[in-house]
Amino acid sequence: MSLLWNALYKINPKFFPNGPDFAISESELIDQPKFKITYHKTDILESQLSTLTGLKCAQMQIEMARSMSPEKFSHDRNKPDCFLKMVKNQPLTSVGSGKDVRHFEFEFVSSAIEYEVGDVLEVLPGQSPAAVDAFIQRCNLNPDLLITVQPRVMKSAPNNGPNVPIKLKTFVERTMDIASASPRRYFFEVMSFFAAAEHEKDRLKYFCSPEGRDDLYQYNQKERRTVLEVLDDFPSVQMPFEWLVQLVPPLKKRAFSISSSSAAHPNQVHLTVDVVSWTTPFKRKRTGLCSMWLAKLDPREGVCIPAWFQKGTLPPPPPSLPLILVGPGTGCAPFRALLEERALQDAYDGAAPVMFFFGCRNEKNDFLYRDFWLFHAQNGGLLSEERGGGFYVAFSRDQPEKVYVQHKIRENSQRIWKLISNGASIYVAGSATKMPSDVMSAFEEIISKETGASRETAVMQLRRLEKDGRYNVESWS
Fold first, then answer.
1. pLDDT in tens, 203-229
2. How far apart are the C-alpha atoms of 323 and 382, rounded to whole Å?
3. Where are the beta strands (DSSP E) in 259-370?
């Protein structure tokens, strides 16, 4: 629109006697925010929550906040399924290994949830109280105000979720990712309209221009700058809370494969978590919000963690089904759960053998759950070769040449094909980089080698196994 005013002004200056810049105020050049904030009196909240205490109150606050969030959360998934309390926080890797993988054990502090092998636990991470306070102070917000958030224009009938006022601070804590996720380009565009300092306004406009696209990428995404950091870099910007609600990235739940069997650990659920950390090009230390939050929790503090249960992509197998498992790194998590449950089934009524391929960097530093796997690989256990199974480990950095799980798979071609011929299913879990495709290629080679078929035929056979539910992959980035 500014370009239009200037073009018209050049055609005929009489269109804009005061100049094109006075044709319309800058704040009107952007649309209204899509959400409106309504402020309420204190006694409304007190009457709504007066009968609720403890976990019920926390559960309702989370449900209320997330039901009002601009993010398209499914309404029936806003309320946590349960609350968990951490009872064990155990490092699985050696100090100085370059990785920090933790074994977490949680107990149910609200109603226990029945879960199956292969299920996924979703956790809503807590945010740093200092970061939340800094964001509220930076944006000149009153943390104790009671608010409700609604779309400015209702496109459909409002959902039937609770429309109860909550504190502004609670809404920020539970729905707005202020100190982890990076804002999108439109965040900078809206900021430019509210920048009081001319040099900041120019910088923000440049970031949003085609010429500034690469510099914005280097400044924002490449460095993973957070909302709070961006706002601190442009101190003259004062964005209305309605815009912040719309544009700050949503606080999302994090999903983890469950690494325990509910039959083996009643009233508990276990996770195997890689604590994410990295260094940006400008040497800024960054960490994963949820994994680092969990790693810093002290079980003695009794923090209540909101959690949800979801079905995973790995179907729970019957005990009579032979299995070939591939799970390098934390990909072993669902297979620890599976083996725990199958060991109980084996003791009760017998179970089919399991072949497991695990991979890590070093035997000394990050051999996750070493004693657990070796126990089941000995004395006729489920992973023992005398039972028809096996346990094979690829230590990628313990020798000059790299050795990965796909190499160990190829080394056991005959044993693998024998299990597949006896009806075994293949389960692959782990990083979604090259591993899943490399593993699939190894299985294609085995089918071709052991049957004498062409590679094209082997590919078709493996695709048929996929279609029949006998080749399953759960991967994550």
1. 999 999 999 999 999 999 999 999 999
2. 10
3. 268-274, 277-279, 285-287, 304-310, 323-326, 354-360
